[in-house]
């Protein structure tokens, strides 16, 4: 028998299925399990968006669109980021519609990276970037932000860029961040942009949680370093549309011309009926995130206070819907072992911090994209665990 199992891309040996998904599957069969694991809104897609999608199907939007996506959607997306974030992008040539931000990440990184390149990755960070970097033959250079309240400092960024020089091809940003839920002030964004503009590097900025910013305004780095920035956003978090798979890339025309080549051969185009629904979301639902954001903020305050009272150290989230908490001393410090023990003893699942890379070990990530009833029960279970499992 011919054996082809050893003939896969050898770089696949360097990556694994996300630890988030591995852990979620590991604990899912535990009876009475309460999961605060996956980053998915517990709200439903707004009714007007659903009806727009239904209408699109009834009107036979079942054919390919152009590779860039429907022009009306790109116009709506361009207007949305202009009105919300003071950004100007030409809808004809500087906006791409993607199959979720995940595809936007892949299309952007594959377009930019070559074997031997280095990519600066502030960590802990969502584990969706490193595998694509690795498969492209590039190498992630991690900056541990855990000692700086999970914010990348411009001084450390400058040091890293000076150290690696022209080997650095790109910098990843993700804010408000997953897993820590922190974001950047205007002054902090400006300071990072001033560093970036000294070097010929791409900034791949994943701002999918932009509409879930609690204090102040969301400031995109594209406002200050436009010519180098590939801006990623989408509707999964702002409009509770994770399953619709609708993302957006905003970039200067010369960058977009290259990224569309990769995008074309990955997916051709996003689903046509979904694109019609997205037009409605970005036009008639420009503020759909506001009531969700208000509710998330209440949940954040509740969970933050309860975890603090239980001895966890944590930076107060200023966006998204996660809390990243340091396991108190006197308890299991291995985050995977802690989370497995918690799941088995209390039927409560949170994600091990190790899933988010450098600086994440010793932490847990809790998603408060859940009802207050579930959060109250979860914190009761956590309290019981902490009271009965100190070493």
Automatic annotation (TrEMBL):
SUPFAM superfamilies: PLP-dependent transferases. Residues 32-381 form the Aminotransferase class I/classII large domain. Its cofactor is pyridoxal 5'-phosphate. It is an enzyme of class 2 (transferase). Keywords: Aminotransferase, Pyridoxal phosphate, Transferase. GO terms for biological process: amino acid metabolic process. Gene3D superfamilies: Aspartate Aminotransferase, domain 1, Type I PLP-dependent aspartate aminotransferase-like (Major domain). It comes from the Bacteria. One of its GO terms (molecular function) is pyridoxal phosphate binding. NCBIfam families: PRK07309.1. This is Aminotransferase. It comes from Tetragenococcus muriaticus 3MR10-3.
């Amino acid at each position: 028998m011919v054996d082809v199992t050893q003939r896969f891309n050898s770089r696949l040996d360097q990556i694994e299925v996300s630890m988030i998904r591995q852990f979620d599957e590991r604990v899912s069969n535990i009876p009475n399990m309460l999961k605060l694991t996956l980053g998915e809104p517990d709200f439903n897609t707004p009714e007007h968006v659903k009806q727009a999608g239904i209408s699109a199907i009834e009107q036979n939007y079942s054919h390919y669109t152009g590779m860039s996506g429907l022009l009306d959607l790109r116009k709506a997306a361009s207007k949305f980021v202009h009105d919300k974030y003071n950004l100007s992008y030409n809808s004809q040539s500087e906006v791409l519609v993607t199959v979720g931000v995940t595809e936007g990440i892949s299309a952007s990184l594959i377009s930019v990276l070559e074997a031997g390149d280095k990519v600066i990755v502030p960590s802990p960070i969502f584990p969706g970037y490193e595998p694509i970097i690795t498969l492209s033959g590039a190498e992630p250079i991690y900056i541990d932000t855990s000692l700086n309240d999970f914010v990348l400092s411009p001084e450390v960024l400058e040091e890293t860029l000076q150290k690696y020089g022209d080997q650095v091809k790109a910098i990843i940003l993700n804010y408000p961040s997953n897993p820590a839920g922190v974001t950047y002030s205007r002054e902090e964004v400006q300071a990072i942009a001033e560093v970036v503009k000294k070097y010929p590097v791409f900034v791949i900025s994943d701002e999918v949680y932009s509409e879930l910013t609690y204090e102040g305004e969301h400031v995109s780095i594209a406002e200050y370093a436009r010519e180098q920035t590939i801006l990623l956003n989408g509707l999964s978090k702002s409009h509770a549309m994770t399953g619709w798979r609708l993302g957006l890339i905003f970039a200067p025309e010369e960058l977009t011309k290259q990224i569309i080549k990769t995008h074309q051969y990955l997916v051709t185009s996003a689903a046509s009926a979904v694109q019609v629904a997205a037009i409605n979301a970005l036009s008639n639902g420009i503020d759909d995130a506001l009531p969700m954001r208000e509710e998330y903020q209440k949940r954040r305050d509740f969970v933050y206070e309860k975890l603090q009272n239980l001895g966890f150290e944590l930076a107060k989230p200023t966006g998204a819907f996660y809390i990243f908490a340091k396991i108190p001393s006197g308890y299991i410090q291995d985050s995977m072992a802690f989370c497995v023990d918690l799941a088995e003893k209390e039927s409560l699942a949170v994600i091990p911090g190790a899933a988010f890379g450098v600086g994440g070990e010793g932490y847990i990530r809790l998603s408060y994209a859940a009802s207050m009833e579930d959060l109250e029960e979860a914190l009761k279970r956590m309290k019981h665990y902490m009271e009965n499992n100190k070493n």
